[in-house]
Amino acid sequence: MTTLTTPRPSTSPDLRQRRSIRRAIQTTWIQHRAALLSFAFIFAVIVTAIVVCQIYTHGSYASYVNHGCVARPINHVPCGDLDNALQNMNDVFTGLLIVLGVLPMLVGAFVGAPLLSNEFESGTFRFTWTQGTGRTRYFLTKFGVLALFFTIVTFVIGILFGNWYAHPFEVTGADSHWQGGLFDTTGWMLAAWSLFALACGSFLGVITKRTVSAIATTAFVVSALLGAAYEVLPRLLKLWTLSSSKILAIGLNYGSLNGGQLEAGLNGRWVVGGYLTGPKGQVLNRASANNIFDRALSSNGGSVGAARWLSNHHYTLWTTYQPSSHFWVFQSVEVVVVLGLAALFIWGTVRRIGRS
Amino acid sequence: MSVIESFGLGVSFGTTSAVRDCTLNVPTGRIVALVGSNGAGKTTLLHCLVGLCKPTVGEITVLDGTVPGSIQARERIAFVAQDALLYRHLPVRSVLTVAGNLNSRFEVEEAKARLSTLDIRLDQKVGKLSGGQQAQLALTLALARHPELLVLDEPLARLDPVARDDIMSLIMSSVAEGGLSVVFSSHVVSELERVADYLILLADGRVQMADEIDRLLAEHMVITVPTDQVDDVVELFPVIAMQRSPRRTQMLVRANGSTELPSGWERHEASLDELVLAYLRDPSATALSGPLSIASIETSRLTR
User: Fold this and answer.
1) Cβ of B102 under 8 Å from any chain A Cβ?
2) With a cut of 0.90, is the ipTM above it?
3) Where are the domains of chain B?
4) Which of A84, A117, A130, A168 is the most exposed place for a label (fewest CB within 10 A)?
5) With an 8 Å Cβ cutoff, is B94 touching chain A?
């Protein structure tokens, strides 16, 4: 008897890879449809809010620029009014900033944490672990698809929010991307933190093996680390500073050097401190410096008069600051740390599921 | 050609030993029934076969030397877990798609055709299926992978007699198609004789008996003797179990069926039910025909 067999059509590596990617996306979509749709809705609402609010802000900001308020003192009447109008719109901006601040925690708790804990809790890991794909590839494939989705979307949101919507508030000095909240939600930071939260949730899911516990633990850990980053940032910004005696910082709070009260060219810097040197170049202690400042400010002419008084008496006010060019360096450092932690969590998850 | 080969296999969870000193050599093409009381180590042994659990000591291979859990083993072994755990919130169609995406040899159309004969609709959610239908679905998913070894953990538990019969028929027809070995654990002893041709009996994590069922039955018989002659039987044969009444006593003994018996003694062939229950009741009894455990080998060496 002769058996006729149909030879399997040979497939090219490209075709196999495309098929493998399609299968990974399809499996992830089937298993995480509810979470992906919920987050797609949340992201759509956030993007819509950013676009609508930016368009609403754009009119006031255009007037502000057209009146030359960017490099003009704030007591110029139309600039003061426009500045107030923009400050009022800052409330919505702050609200969105808070939402974006908790977004990584939500991604970690509601997508990362159930990723494996759900499999353990329901017992379906006995089904998936024993399929041809294997547990490690199964996890990495699903994680990869989810990570790609959340990284792309949060990166777009971070750019839209931090580099487009935030611009008028930066220029007017209402906010600065150097501040903790904005620093961690603009550029690629939102994407990096979301990826970290996803990895952290997966790891805690494989540790706790219970969905609710994994969600609660992930929410706590991600929030705590985001809070720690917020607290550590001001200390980090005191490193690698530059000093200048050219910046008229009398009467200014430390922080952003944005705003209409400054001469052009200083926008984007971040003042982290200052000190006073005497006629012989010696650095004055805090008490002596305060005493000299009181005497300088008691002279007429406001901050300009005070600066003139200091100069006449051979005192020099030095301002330490981060130049705008350092911003991306600091963000890159934090991104590397956050992604490094994410990689550790992914490695830990793979190790752990290999033993389970 | 062996489907399972283990030597001195032991699995511990902390200080608890689930499987101990387990040495097996099961030929391919068999339907192997794994029997034992609760906590005997059946599920742990099955998990070792499919790579869900790693040996603490000793070694185990499947399908002629393949390491359980390796990619080669996963492609060739299908496992149906106890209670047929599947994604309850997904429709049957989606579960088929997921299974198809996770296996290179999965035949979706074949699985659909089988499910249609079982009246399982593709748009039904898995959680809405009856226990029997969920078991049928899990088995269908496993068979659609065209495995060389099918491992089933308590496939008959919680099933009504009709569903149980359907599952057994499905397993037997799949084996009849050729190239498939099956290992299943079960408490339903009455069903074993119909489907299984190899028996592994576990007690307290150890292999108490492991051999072809026909050979085991041939090496045991039930003898009924006057009660006052019980001692004569005990002298002649190893007695596994005894049912004593004032006048007559029935004993399951290990003896060849052709052995000559004194007049007045009656004998009949032991059924698999009787054999399994007798051994389950006495975990210290060991069938000689099964492979010797390391401990018993050591003991026999010491006593020589």
Assistant:
1) yes
2) no
3) 2-214, 219-297
4) A84
5) yes
